[in-house]
Amino acid sequence: MDFKTATALRRLRLVSAPEAVSFLLLLICSVLKRTTDFNAVPVMGMVHGVLFILYVVFWADAWNRVKWGWQTAALYFVLSVLPTGGFFAERKLKRETEAGVIAARARKEGVINA
């Protein structure tokens, strides 16, 4: 795994958890708006929107660099639309990145011929 690929996966991983948290907070704010006088939906909507756009941009970059198949790319996109999916995406991306780094080191040391 080259440096740019690892960086693309890291960026996607780092934005996935905050995007999931912002989605959950937006849902909570929506409920509070309808049940109380508290209205933070415009602020949380904007925060979540920015984080979602960053996620999609980083997802497209990672898809381009890692050369995921359609199923893997679709999985990471669907996880961004589910309220807690970003947490699962973060864990899966962490494992994928670690596996790629280990394989790259093994190739560099001559353990794996590829």
Query: Which structural class should the secondary elements be placed in?
Result: mainly alpha
Number of domains: 1
Q: Low-confidence parts, pLDDT < 50 over ≥5 residues?
A: none
Q: What's the total count of β strands?
A: 0
What does this structure look like?
This protein is mainly alpha-helical and 114 residues long. The chain has one domain (3-108). 83% of the residues lie in helices and 0% in strands. The chain has helices at 3-35, 41-66, 70-81, 85-108. Helix 1 (3-35) runs antiparallel to helix 2 (41-66), helix 1 (3-35) packs antiparallel against helix 4 (85-108) and helix 2 runs antiparallel to helix 3. The longest helix is centred in the N-terminal third of the chain and has 33 residues, at 3-35. The chain starts with a helix and ends in a 6-residue tail after the last helix.
